[in-house]
Amino acid sequence: MDLVGRDDLLATVRARLAARGRVLLHGPAGIGKSAVLSAVVPADAVVLRSAPGEADRHVPHLVLADLLGEVRVALPAPQREALDRALRRRPGEPDPLALRRAVLTAVRELDPVVVIDNGQWVDDATARVLAFAVARSAPRVLVAAGEPGPAWWGEPIEVPPLSAAATAELMTRHGRVDVGLAGGNPRYAIELSRSAGGIPDRLLADVRARLAAQPADVRAALLVAALVERPTVRMVVHFGHERAAAGLGCCPLVRVSPDGGVRFREPLVAAALPLVVPPDEVRAAHARLAALVADPVERARHRACAITGFDEPTAVLAQRAAGALRRRGALGRAAELGGLAADCTPPSAPARAAGRRLRAAGDALDAGRHELATSLARAVLRSPGVPRGLRVRAQLVLVDAVRHARTAAGGIVGEALSHARGDAALEAPAEYRFGLHSALGGDLREAVRHMADAVLLARTAKDPRTEAMSLCSLALCQTALGDASAGGTLDLARRVAPGWMVVTHDGPLWVDARLDLFADRLDSASDRLAALLDRAAERGALSEVVGMTWAGVEVWVAMGRCDRALRRAGDCLRLAETIGSDIALACYGAALAEAYGGDPVTADALARRGACRAEADGDHAFLVRNLHARGLAALSADDPEAALGPLRRAARLERDMGVTDPAVFALGADLAEPLIAAGRLAEAAGVLGGARACAVRLGRRGVLASLDRADGLLRLALKDHAGAERFLASAVEAHRRLRQPLQLGRSLLALGIAERRRRRRGAARKLLEQARQVFAESGAPRWAGRAAALLGDTPGGATLAGFEARIARHVIEGASNPEVAGRLNISVKTVEGALTRIYRKLAVHNRTQLAARLRGEGEFPVSDPVIGNPS
Q1: What is 660-793's CATH number?
Q2: Phi and psi of 599, rounded to 5°?
Q3: Rounded to whole angstroms, how far apart are CA atoms 666 and 743?
Q4: Is residue 866 scored above 50 in pLDDT?
Q5: pTM
Q6: In this structure, are residues 584 and 373 in contact, taking their beta carbons and an 8 Å threshold?
Q7: Regarding predicted confidence, which is higher, 648 or 801?
Q8: What does the record list as coiled-coil region(s) (predicted)?
C-alpha cells in the first residue's frame, strides 16, 4: 500500500509491534489511522479484525462476534457453550469465567494479530474479555482510536500530521492544492483537493458534529477563538465566557499553551467553525469583538464582519486597515480585509467595489494566496455594471493566479486580449501576459513580438509599469535568442521603471541578476538577488520569494556555496508547497542543490517531480531545467547512461524553443560528457561544436571553459593526449580566474585523469588532491569522493559516499533511524538501507563498532566512482 509521507511511521509501528506485541495508534479523525493499521498487518498472519461504530458500543459482545464469529477452534464443552451464548448462537447468558477461558484458548491456538479500528467504540463486555486474554497470552494487538485508552490496547503512538511536502504530493494526485488548510490531515487533503473551492459540505458536516459534542459554553468560546487572530484564554474570559475557559483545556479541538494561548489542533476546524454556526451568532460575536479589541485593524475587520447588508463608512474603514496591513507586509490579511471592504460597498457603486476587490486580489497574488485572488477576480466578473476595463483586469488576475501553470489558464489570456482591443491601457498588460505565456510554452519568437507590442501600447497609454515589465521580459527573451540588442532593451527598462519596481521580480534588478549569471559576474548576481529576496521578504511577497530563490540557488552553486544552496532551496520548496504553486521552480532549485551538495537519489526524485509538474503546466523552460537537474544527478552518481535520456530531451526542447545563448540553460558540456563516457564521440563533437560557436559569438567565458573541459575529455577518448591536456589546462585556468569552484573541481578532476593516462603519477596526484580540496570546501562531498577514490589513499581502502557519511555522522552521534530520516528529510527505509551498506563497507556489525571505526580514523572516508572509465 502506497501511503504518502508515512514511511517513518510505518517502520516505527512495525518495529514496536514486533518488539512489544501491542500498539495503539491515536489521533484525530481523518489523520490516516485506519490506512496505517491496514498497512502494518503482517501478510502471513491470522488476522482477527473489527471496526465498530459509535452505536455498536451498547451491544454486548458485538466486537467479540466480529473477531471470533467465523473462527472454528476446538474448545472444551463449557468454553464452547459460553462462547456460543456470547455470540448469540445459543440462548442464555454466558458463564463469565468460561467465556474468558474460551477466548484465551482461541487466542493461544490461533496466534493472531488482533486488529480493532475505532477502539473507543468497543463494547464493555468485549473489552473485559479481551483484557483478560491479552494479559495472559500476549498476542499481537493493533488498535486505532481517537485518544489513548486502556493498557491492553498497547503502547500509544500518535499519528502525526503529514509534512507539507507529503500533503502537497497527496493533494496534487487528486486536484487542487491547499496545504495550509489541510493541516497535514490526509482525509482533509483529499476532500479539499477534489473540491472546486472552499470547504466541502462533508467536511463542514464533520466539524458541525464535533462541535455539537462540546458543551454550549465551550462552543461559544471556540467561536470566539476562531474569529480572532491570536486567541487567548484571557480574551475568552474577557468576552464573558469565564466558565468555558476551563473547559477549553479539556476540549479535543484546541490546545492551550502554558502562557494561555489557544490554538486549534487542525486549521480546517478553525476555518470551518464560523461556517457551521448560525450567521446571526457569528455576526453578534464579531460585533462584541469590535467593541473589545484594542488593535484598530482587528477592530475594523470585526466591524466589517458584524454588519448586515452594505455600509460605505465601514468599507472605507476596512480599506484603510487593509492598507495598514499592506505596509506591515501582512499581504494575506490585507487581501482578506480588502475583500471585506468590497463586500461592504453599496451595490450602487459597482466600479468602486470591483476596484477594491482587484486591489485585494493583487495583495493575495503577492502573498501566494492564489485561490483567494481567483475568487475575488471571479466575483468582479460576476458583478453587473462593472466597466470593461475592470473586467479585463479581473481576467488578467485569473491569468496571474495560475503562475507558471500555463495550461490551467485555458483561453483566458486570449479572451482578455480580445476584450482589451482598442484600448491601449488595457491592451498593453494583456499583450504582456500573452507574451509571457508564449515564452512559457516555448515559443520565444512569438513572445518577443507580443512583448514589443506591449511596450509600444504601454508607452501610448503612459503606463510605465507595464512598459518596464514588458521591456524586462523582452530583454530576457532576446538574451535567450542570442539577440545582441538585449542590453539596450534593459537600459531602456531602467530608465522608465518606477523606483519601487526596481526591486520586484518583474523589474530591472532581476534581469540584471540573470544577465550577471550568464556573463559569469557571480558576486554581482549574488548581491542583486540578496537585495531582491530581502525586499520580497519585507513586503511579505511569498510568490516572489519562491520565484527568486531558484535563481539564487543557481548562483550559489556556481559560487561553490552548496550548504547555503541546500538550505535555501529546502526552505523554498517548503514555501512553494505551502502556497501551492511554483512547485516546478522550487523542485528544480532543490534538485540542483542536491545534485552537487547532497544526495543524487534525492536530486533525481526532486527533478522528476519538477519535470512532471512543468510538463503538466506546459512550462517548457522549467521542464528543460528539471531535465538538466536529472542529468546532473546521474552524473553525480557516476551513471552517464542514465544522464543521457533527460539531457538529450532537454537539448531538443532548448533547440525547439530557439534558445541560442548556451549560458541560459548551460547544457552543452553536461550533455557532451556522458556522451563521451558512453562512447558516442561523433554526437558529442556535434554538441560541442554548436555550443562553442554561440559561446564565442556571445562572449560566454564560463561556458567556453566548461566546453574546453568536455573537449579535453573528447580528445582523451580519441587518445590525443597532448590536445586533451591543452584543453583541460585551459579549462582549469579559466574556471580559476572566473572563481567557479565546482566547475574548477570538475576540470581539475578531468586533468588529473588525463595525467594518469600519461602515467604522470605525481602530477595526477597533485591535481586530484586540489580537486578534492576544492570540492570539500564547496560543500560537494559526492564530487570530493571521486577525487578520493582516484587518489586511493582512504583508510583501509573502505570509503563512504557523501550521503552515507552524513547518515553515519548522525548515527554515531546517537540519533535513531527515524531521527536521522527526519533530519535529512528521507525515509526510514532509506536510512536502513544506507546503514546496511555502511556496515558492509566498513566491516562492522553495529553502531558501537561503527563509531569506534570512524572516530579512530579521525575523519570520514568518502569516495565515488569517477567520470567514465579513467583506467
Answers
A1: 1.25.40.10
A2: -105, 125
A3: 12
A4: no
A5: 0.74
A6: no
A7: 648
A8: none
